[in-house]
Amino acid sequence: MEGIGNAAVVMAPEQAADISDQIRRCALPLPHALLARDLQTTRTHPRCTTPSAAETCKLLMWWAIIAHVVGGWKYVPRLVARPLERALATSPVVVLMGARQTGKTTLVQSEPYLSDRLYLTLDDLDTREQARKSPEDVVKSATRVTLDEVQREPGVLHAVKRAVDSDRPRKTGRFLLTGSANLLLMRRVSETLAGRATYVQLWPLTRSERIGLGACGIWTDLLATPVSGWPKLFESSESQPADWRDEAARGGYPTPALELDGHEARALWFDGYVRTYLERDLQDVAFIRDVVNFRRAMRATCLTIGTVLNQSRLGRDTGIPRATLQRYLDLMESCYQLVRVPAFSVNRTKRLVKSPRVYWSDPALALWLSGSRAALGAHLENLVLSDLLAWRDSLLPAPDVLHWRTSTAQEVDFVIESGSRLLAIEVKASSNPGHRATRGLRAFRQEYDSDGRFAGGLLLNCGKQTRWMSDRILAVPWWKVL
Fold it and tell me: Are residues 64 and 102 in the same domain?
């Protein structure tokens, strides 16, 4: 077995070719059907531009198809796998965090470089009881230990801390912890292993992850390429058009995104997910007496995604006191449901709004919680944001993902600040956006162009053509970026 990227090639080429032919003849209803077609025409993914990257990409596509055929195994390579591997090579404790059902357990049990670790989950009642009564025995049970869902028994972190401090010299990669709540925000957790741990974030599946590429949008390429070279970057793309409404309705949780078809099936899954979150996960973080009010706050927030957070208005709409609502929002964020996008507030000549915008970690869950079946433009924004967040948290140092809005309502949906460069992104659910759609991008360019920081503006839309809308502002189909 030879490790390739985040996966492994386990068959000879002739065996793989035979399986590829079986896939063609069986017409399997899999998300990787596109990969099978690309493979048979010897094409690789358009984002792989170097020979080594292209070869790795091709092997990853083989792996994705084979994994679905042999035994029905459904592990999908994740973008965060390499950052996680790097973190384990440098830190004694690594914490993999993310919402429930994003694939943390599958990741830590499936990656080849994690196969030699003892795996324990605090979802198991016996293990949880042992962690409560004798945490020292749990952390000393093997040389390298993976502890899943550690937020269920936060006291075990003290034992991890003591074990790390007793190691001389320190042993890198000794503990891999996972949690469905942000340990840095949980008020019940007094010990966050400061100076001992590295934190890695797993977000819901990106579009490229769903088709087996373990990747995200081409944000890094856009920042590295002069704006004049962007059209050629997109011309070389072979990304296929997609219906953003369908993409938003599927979202990035692996089960509804990869295994369930139809509104009814996904609605049942989301209903069970929210019930589990309210009745189980949330209670691990803080005691919520009025679950009905909390759910009302979740729904109200999902109805306002893509807008600047206005807690006073949200409180009036829900009838929830301001202090209680603030606590609810903090809890949603700590469990990786709510996402607050901070404002880019470098003020030169304009008065800026400094409140964050609100989104949800997964557009499909936000759509279901809102009670609507029809996706809106805000859900396309949320789809783009989900990809941006996965990309951001795969890098060191991590770029900032922000929004920009002036007091006169000129705004840009997302601003990427990476070093000294600013990439402005506007998202429109229109197939033919006009000049007016670039109003915010043009205002941002005017404000921040004098010092050379403006890297360019992207107008992501639902059309099929790439065209210049203004100086260094390019309109491009959203699916060519994601």
Answer: no
Residues in the chain: 482
**Structural domain containing residue 148:** 81-201
Nearest Cα to Cα of residue 310 among 357, 366, 252: 357
Cis peptide before 397 (omega within 30 of 0): yes
Q: Name the region of 317 (left: φ>0; alpha: ψ -120 to 50; beta: rest).
A: alpha
- The CA–CA distances, whole Å, from 169 to 163, 164, 174, 194 equal 12, 10, 12, 18
In this prediction, residue 380 carries a pLDDT of 97
Two tokens at 235? 């011309």
Per-residue confidence (pLDDT) for residue 191, from 0 to 100: 59
Q: What's at 383, amino acid-wise?
A: L
How many Cα atoms are found within 13 Å in the side-chain-facing hemisphere of 285? 25
Residue 198 has pLDDT above 60, yes or no: yes
Q: Are 429 and 437 in contact (CB under 8 A)?
A: no
Residue 211, in any domain of the structure: no
Q: Are strands 2-4 and 454-461 parallel, antiparallel or unpaired?
A: unpaired
User: Is residue 54 a contact partner of residue 38, using CB atoms and an 8 Å limit?
Assistant: no
Phi, psi of 206 (to 5 degrees): -80, 170
φ, ψ (nearest 5 deg) of residue 477 = -60, 140
CA gap 251, 257 in Å, rounded: 6
Instruction: Please calculate the CA angle 82-83-88 and round it to the nearest 5 degrees.
Output: 95
For residue 119 the two structure tokens come to 């795996």
Same domain, 108 and 17: no
Answer whether residue 220 shows pLDDT above 80: yes
Residue 78's nearest CA partner among 236, 258, 264, 241 is 258
| Helix-, strand-, coil-residue percentages of the chain, each rounded to 5 | 45, 15, 40
